[in-house]
Amino acid sequence: MGTMIIDGQHIEFTDEKNILAVIRKVGIELPTFCYHSELSVYGACRMCMVEDKWGSTITSCSTPPKDGMEVWTNTDKLKKHRKMILELLLANHDRDCTTCEKSGRCKLQEIALKVGVKKVRFGQEKKEIPIDDMGPSVIRNPNKCILCGDCVRACQEIQGVGVLDFAYRGSNLQVTTAFNKSLQEVDCVNCGQCRVVCPTGALMIKKDIDRAYKALHDKNKRVIAQIAPAVRVAIGEDFGLQPGEISMGKIVSALRKLGFDQVFDTAVGADLTVIEEAEELMDRIQRKEKLPLFSSCCPAWFKYAEQKHPDLMENVSSCLSPQQMFGAVIKEQYKREKASDEKENVVIAIMPCTAKKYEAARPENTINGERQVDMVITTQELAIMIQENGIVFNELEDEAIDMPFGFTSGAGVIFGVSGGVSEAVLRYYYKERNASTLRGLSYCGVRGMEGVKEASAEIDGRTVRIGIVHGLKNAEKLIRRIKSGEEKFDFIEVMACPGGCIGGAGQPIPQNENVRKLRAKGIYKVDKSLPIKRSDDNPTIDALYNGILNSNRNILHRNGKH
Ligand code: HC1
Ligand code: SF4
């Protein structure tokens, strides 16, 4: 605690970790490429330099504030210095901005404009490093990399995966993988968190937009959408709405305008997952075997578990994710109805997640060689399609999802936020249908943005202990405690992205804790507004178990093993 003088103004600081945070507090937005409040401080881009009263320059992101400290943020010396850094970066950068997908959202472009770079005085050294587009989720274009190291730290510090690092020296310095392999050939889990923090077009979502248009324009295809829970509280951000504003009705309307024949809600698939996973957990608890049970709906976590903890795979739920369960149900439904028009059914999932593209392509997610989800379009890809087609999103009238899967429960929707899977499963066990039971469950430790949460609930006279983590680095910490015998749990919910799917890499950018909190609030608001709170109270689910899932429940489980 103390007082600093910024540009002649006296400012009190309390627990701000660095001068940059104090400067931001007074409403001055210093440019930075490498500073992210949720990652470690790197201090490499030097854009956030300030000048002290003796004329020395210091990096504001890596210097803590001190009582009586006096700094200036925009002296002539600093302006010259920032312009020089940008010119050097641009001299070494692929500058095809007009055709770059990141144009308009690129930090390099934005800061160059703000700082007033009108021309680059140095000759361009165009890099021609091969682009890695082999993987299903993320494209890496090293020619657009500005070496800020944000992706390296996100992969290491959020996910503990660490497949990206700096290599080579001097002017050959690059961010790359071990032996320059494709992301697909290393232990990348396709979470896309590297692309969330990338300021330029060096890391991008692998898009399926053209494939989607091709299906939508084919008269012989029935194109069916399923919309993930987290998409509805984030897509509006790309159209100027606040994070957390609920846009489900507008999304449905936009999808119909784009030519989708049927539009459904993935929350129905989540209701099926709740029932299947809750029964699997109770069965294991009664048999006292293969505990704790780990959730399986996050594909980045699933891949991580396969790679790092093969010994734990029998503890991972046999349930397919809601995306895949619902894909299988939709395909089964239309297979039975199809005879009348002979159209080919194409299921497109609209997801907040880049790893869902990988999940949909996994071989065990096919039945007789046919994919159950044919394509995955992220929230951002859908926003691009809406813009490309001139649809004025904010003016769309709300529309409802289609029958025969027209009802969803609040339990299915809260899957979109970390802790939601656990809370939905607990709702299933508690048979009392009153508001105080639901409120009690929401306070048992499942909600909140902490990276590791613990909750417990009494079920049939037994205490069920639940661990909830988001970020694979947090998952790894919990696994170590479990393996060492330090901790005992019955159920562990793992989501790779910060805050759960609301913080997925397919969601609009920028993302930070505040944005995620607002999105989570939106999800809980949807839950509040829905009359059906529990998955097994959803009439759609009842109809499914008495209909196409009757004696066919194995399609909801990995490799048909139920
Ligand atoms: Fe998720 Fe899930 S909640 S994984 O975060 O279990 O992506 O939203 O669709 O499948 O329902 C994502 C979100 C999503 C699945 C569900
Ligand atoms: Fe690392 Fe995830 Fe990026 Fe892969 S997608 S490089 S795991 S941050």
UniProtKB/TrEMBL annotation:
What's the main place this protein lives? membrane
**Domain 4Fe-4S ferredoxin-type: from-to ranges:** 136-166, 179-208
- Molecular function as annotated in GO: 2 iron, 2 sulfur cluster binding; 4 iron, 4 sulfur cluster binding; ferredoxin hydrogenase activity; iron ion binding; NADH dehydrogenase (ubiquinone) activity
Q: Which controlled-vocabulary keywords does the entry list? A: 2Fe-2S, 4Fe-4S, Iron, Iron-sulfur, Membrane, Metal-binding, NAD, Repeat, Translocase
Instruction: Give GO BP annotations, semicolon-separated.
Output: ATP synthesis coupled electron transport
Sequence ranges assigned to domain 4Fe-4S His(Cys)3-ligated-type in this UniProt record: 77-116
Q: Where in the cell is it found?
A: Membrane
Q: Name one GO cellular component term.
A: membrane
Provide the cofactor list for this protein: [4Fe-4S] cluster; [2Fe-2S] cluster
Indicate whether 4Fe-4S appears among the record's keywords: yes
Q: What is this protein called?
A: Hydrogenase, Fe-only
- Per the UniProt entry, what species is this protein from, by scientific name? Ruminiclostridium cellulolyticum (strain ATCC 35319 / DSM 5812 / JCM 6584 / H10)
